[in-house]
């Protein structure tokens, strides 16, 4: 895997871009970069925010600079480090009742599947957590099975905010740790 591209984001942040497509090897690599940079620049960083394909590094401009971080990152050699040989798989309860899954029937209709087929496809898949954020414990997951892809809508379930409503297709899923009330995100 090649080194990330580095772009300044204002005077106190840089963005590392590792690619433009979700790749299941990226979460581990992005995590390695974040951990290594946090350790090397302890006390000078404000935050490291990973996403599917990038890492935003915010720093105190009094103690650090774009040039210092860029130089350090360009000399890192993490791309060749081995991935973990095992992963910790967690099984999470999933509820498909209308209150928790208000668009389940419309998804089934769109995909020409029965509700039971949608549930089976969704629940038998293993998902990779690519990032955590938005609210505490909010997990951004990698690809859904292709049979469940559907254009996203801007329609929100009553009382909830759909954080990925701007995506062109809902190929990714998210797990909110807590219900998100509209207007309170």
Automatic annotation (TrEMBL):
Catalytic class of the enzyme: hydrolase
Enzyme Commission code: 3.5.1.54
GO molecular function: allophanate hydrolase activity; ATP binding
Residue ranges of every copy of the Carboxyltransferase domain listed in the record: 4-161
SMART domains: AHS1
Keywords: ATP-binding, Hydrolase, Nucleotide-binding
Source taxon at top rank: Bacteria
Protein name: Allophanate hydrolase 2 subunit 1
Source species of the chain: Vibrio maritimus
Upper lineage: Bacteria, Pseudomonadati, Pseudomonadota, Gammaproteobacteria, Vibrionales
């Amino acid at each position: 895997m090649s080194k990330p591209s580095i772009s300044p984001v204002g005077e106190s942040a840089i963005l590392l871009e590792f690619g433009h497509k979700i790749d299941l090897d990226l979460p581990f690599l992005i995590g390695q970069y974040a951990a290594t940079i946090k350790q090397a620049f302890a006390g000078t960083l404000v935050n490291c925010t990973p996403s599917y394909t990038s890492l935003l590094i915010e720093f105190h401009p009094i103690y650090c600079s774009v040039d210092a971080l860029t130089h350090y990152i360009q000399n890192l050699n993490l791309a060749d480090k081995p991935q973990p040989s095992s992963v910790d798989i967690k099984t999470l309860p999933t509820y498909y009742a209308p209150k928790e899954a208000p668009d389940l029937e419309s998804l089934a209709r769109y995909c020409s599947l029965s509700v039971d087929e949608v549930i089976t496809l969704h629940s038998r898949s293993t998902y990779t957590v690519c990032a955590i954020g938005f609210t505490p414990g909010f997990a951004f997951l990698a690809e859904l099975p292709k049979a469940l892809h559907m254009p996203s809508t801007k329609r929100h379930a009553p009382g909830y905010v759909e954080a990925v409503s701007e995506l062109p297709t809902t190929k990714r899923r998210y797990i909110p740790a807590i219900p998100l009330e509209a207007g309170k995100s």
